[in-house]
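Subject: for your reference before the review

Hello V.,

The reviewers asked for a structural picture of the protein, and I figured it would be easier to keep everything in one thread rather than splitting it across files. Below is the amino acid sequence we used in the manuscript, unchanged from the supplementary table.
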Amino acid sequence: MLHELALDRELSADPDATLAMVADLVHATDETLRAHARRLAARLVIDRSRAGRPVRAGTSRPRNVPASRGGDLDVDASMEGIVTARGEGRPPDLDDLTARDWGRQDLALCLLVDASGSMNGERLAVAATVAAACALRAPVQHAVLAFAGDVRTIRPLSGVDPAASVVDKVLALRGHGVTRLADGLRAAVGELAAARAHRRVVVLLSDCRHTDEDPLAVARTVPELVVLAPREDSEQAAALARAAGARWAELDGADSAPALLRDLL
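And here is what came back from the structure prediction:
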């Protein structure tokens, strides 16, 4: 059985190695050990993820919206529509008019996890920590997808799964199959299409090696792309990010992930 006080000491001394070890134990063959490791892993990962400060929902700012969506009529902004309608001999309808509404300058995130390679303890711990950090930064509007030969939805954008449940599902991933990165990026863009936020960011956790379609054309369609590459395995990720106009960084273990994500966002 894992001794939690000893584990906390190890976590203070070497957080990355400790998180990786616990992530590996999530797949232990002993059922009791596996269940205990899953409970501990969720707690440890969420605690470490708090190094990345949550993004506030944002201050309310006025914005122009179609009058059919409500708000206060903006006569000046609606004048063109009014004149056009009168010129056509009809009364203006709501689609011709503009209103002023107060919207949030907020953030929606979709974490896209590469599950095609060897999802060992370190990579699992990194993926789980980034997932928890995304939940803290955009608690209402965040999704988590995993891709390999197909794309799996771990948490949809409209989901209500708590961070601990998402972390548990990420830690259960096993690397397998081919790498259909382009399909993963398409799915992430589609997931964010329903977001209410003005800022929509795909956070790609991958070495960006692909085995079929070149992902560059799809990457260029992402509203905002952030690439987090594995330690000492970032060459192709850097090349894709540069070509797509994305920001990227090499992850130096799980413990550095939340602060790095915060800086890149």
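For the response letter, the relevant points are probably these. Residues 52-60 have pLDDT under 50 and may be disordered. The beta strands are 60-66, 72-73, 98-104, 107-114, 142-147, 151-155, 199-205, 225-229, 247-250.

Happy to draft the paragraph if you're swamped.

O.
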